[in-house]
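SEQUENCE WITH STRUCTURE:
===
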Amino acid sequence: PPREPAVAPQPPTDGRGPAAPFRFLRDAETDKLAAILASERPQVIALVLSHLPPEQAGNVLVRFPPALQVEIIRRLVDLEETDPEILREVERGLEKRLAEVVRSQRRRVAGLSAVEGIVRASGPAIATQILENLSRYDRPLAERLAPGEPRFEELLALDDAALASVLAAAELEVIALALLGAPPPWHQRVLAAMPQREAEWTRQRLASPGPVRLRDVEEARRRLAALARQMALQGKIRLPAAANPLA
């Protein structure tokens, strides 16, 4: 019987025809893609950018130094049709390097999660000691692991004792400024947590605030939030769960 004709292997498709070159790069993070391409020759970078959507290609291009941008643009202008085998070779190399970057990032995330779990499981005193020791050698990492700075409104979720501790450590003028423009329930919650004399002074200040700039109010709220974060790091209070990623 006659033999069936040999069928040449077909390039991969997405159901609508041959897959576009470098299609796997379209979902890559721009910074990671630029970092990977930065070690390539301008001709290769131009080749890759020519196969990306224009907006993505532009976002990658602007991350290179100006001189390299000019060289890449020149290569793009003079770019000719590339041999398919060369395209596939470049694709394989970039796909492998991108996969290595993703795997490395996943390992770092897993390691950070493990450390966060240790700090979270420790009591306030031990967690504070760990973070204080770490900050002597690696302050940025210690700050990543430390409780996040709460928003001013989240301070209202503190228990009575914790809120009273924060207010006792703050300046009265800062408290009054932070309360300007706040809803009445906020006033009631804060004033109820203050000693009677300080609460009365704050009421009078709120009744006659005088001219106040919005940025001064925002700064006062930020200072109270920062104070709460500092006290949490010292183990003096516990932040509400919404403001504390380690809670």
